[in-house]
Amino acid sequence: MPAQSIWTLLSWGPDGWSDDIASGVLVTVALALATLPIGLAIGFFVAFAKQHEEPALRLAANIYTTVFRGLPELVTLFLFFFGMPLLLQYVVRLFEPGATIDVNSFIAGMIVLALIFSSYASEVFLSAFRAIPKGQYEGGYAIGLSKWQTMRLVILPQLLRIAFPGLENCWLSLLKDTSLVSVVNLAETLRNAGVAARVTKHSFLFY
Predict the structure, then answer these.
(1) Largest alpha-carbon pair distance within the chain?
(2) What pLDDT, on a 0 to 100 scale, did the predictor assign at position 16?
(3) Tell me, what's the pLDDT at 36?
(4) Closest among 170, 175, 198 to 188, alpha carbons compared
(5) What residues does each domain of the chain span?
(6) Which of 3.10.20.740, 3.40.50.920, 1.10.3720.10, 2.40.160.210 is the CATH number of 18-191?
(7) How far is CA 159 from CA 128, 141, 154, in A?
(8) Strand (E) positions, the chain?
(9) SS (H, E, C) the chain
(10) Which of 137, 138, 148, 192 is 20 to 30 A from 4, comparing alpha carbons?
(11) What letter does residue 54 receive in the DSSP assignment?
(12) Residues 42, 45, 46, 47: is their CA dihedral positive or negative?
């Protein structure tokens, strides 16, 4: 490929594809950032449930992580993107016959990635919980702190410090998993690169 044509293809403006690639990168980052707080919150509460005294909560949390860690990510995405509209449509049509439901690709991707991310993050949080000595809880109660205050002021700062390296790995996996959403027509980095590769016939350059 001539050097000039490479620069033309990678240029900004109507003759190049940098605009599309850049917009795809922004969508990828936005999807990952939107997923992160949801996944962290769910993962924290799942880890909390895994060490709860109530057996039903522990069982539910274990089933949750087993299912979403065991299912292939692509299968989970298809189940939600194609199955959720059918379920919602069935419910809505009980009240409004003829109604149709469409699920936004970004929202579907965010939900699925949050579920997958949280199933792994919960194990990181659980390990961090177990690394904190019980004496930390007892010390908080001994000085008159409630359970919530002990968790917020004593346990949580230590928990986040211990869990951070593992959560960083989960974040990197989340960034890579955003490419899966290209199969449901979300114009993220991989999809836009694929379009550019098909149109220009220069697959190696764009991938």
Answers:
(1) 74
(2) 67
(3) 95
(4) 175
(5) 18-191
(6) 1.10.3720.10
(7) 6, 18, 9
(8) none
(9) CCHHHHHHHCCCCCCCCHHHHHHHHHHHHHHHHHHHHHHHHHHHHHHHHHCCCCHHHHHHHHHHHHHHHHCCHHHHHHHHHHHHHHHHHHHHHCCCCCCCCCCCHHHHHHHHHHHHHHHHHHHHHHHHHHHCCHHHHHHHHHCCCCHHHHHHHHHHHHHHHHHHHHHHHHHHHHHHHHHHHHHHCCCCHHHHHHHHHHHHCCHHHHC
(10) 192
(11) -
(12) positive
State both tokens at 73: 């990510």
Q: What is the DSSP string of 59-85?
A: HHHHHHHHHHHHS-HHHHHHIIIIIHH
Other Cβ atoms within 10 Å of 177 Cβ, number: 20
Task: Give the C-alpha separation, 70 to 82, whole Å.
Answer: 20
Q: Strand locations in 78-132, DSSP E?
A: none
CA distance 7 to 30: 28
Q: How many residues are recorded in the chain?
A: 207
- Amino acid identity of residue 38, one-letter, is I
Which whole number is the average pLDDT over 23-39?
A: 89
* Residue 11 identity (one-letter amino acid): S
Residue type for position 171: W
pTM of the model: 0.81
- Is residue 110 a contact partner of residue 34, using CB atoms and an 8 Å limit? yes
